[in-house]
Amino acid sequence: MKYLLDLILLLPLLIVFCIESFIKRLIPKKKKSVAGEIVLITGAGHGIGRLTAYEFAKLNTKLVLWDINKNGIEETAAKCRKLGAQVHPFVVDCSQREEIYSAVRKVKEEVGDVSILVNNAGVVYTADLFATQDPQIEKTFEVNVLAHFWKHSVPCISAVS
Fold first, then answer.
1. b/e string for 37-55 if b means 16 or more Cβ within 10 A?
2. pTM of the model
3. Among 3, 12, 64, 146, which residue carries the largest CB count within 10 Å?
4. Which keywords belong to this entry (predicted)?
């Protein structure tokens, strides 16, 4: 009996949610404009970070690009400039806390307060766990885990200085 009652209560909810979903699909929400925003993208020298930078460049944003790879970050910056964005590339090792804080201060002085942060930097080693050396494991955690907890991860990085 309890299951029958649950089913009877579920059916009207399903109908309401289906109608709501259909209406939301027909009338999409207005997208927020990010034009003029200062966007910091870590790991922007290649891969997803680079592609993310290209997409934000098309939206008329000020880009702050961080990567450990100088050549990669310069290539990304050049392409973003061609797309019309104002770009500020920085070579930053996201596994080094003091280097992050130093870069945050430079960004604040040279560009301003970051309003959008894309924490994308990451390190991957393809060997299995037992073949991976201890320094590689430490580096993976420093970049993939710890870097997200330093104060630069706050939406407005002005709190760091």
1. bbbbbbbbbeeebbebbbe
2. 0.75
3. 64
4. Endoplasmic reticulum, Lipid biosynthesis, Lipid droplet, Lipid metabolism, NADP, Oxidoreductase, Signal, Steroid biosynthesis
- Closest-CA residue to 50 (of 98, 106, 120): 120
Residue 115 exposed, middle or buried by CB count within 10 Å (0-12, 13-18, 19+): middle
**Which residue range is the domain that position 92 belongs to?**
38-159
Give the C-alpha separation, 125 to 133, whole Å.
Answer: 10
Cβ within 8 Å of residue 144, ≥6 positions away: 122, 123
Q: Which two tokens stand for residue 148?
A: 């997200």
- The CATH number covering residue 101 comes to 3.40.50.720
Helical segments of the chain, H only:
2-26, 47-58, 70-82, 97-110, 134-144
DSSP state of 155: S
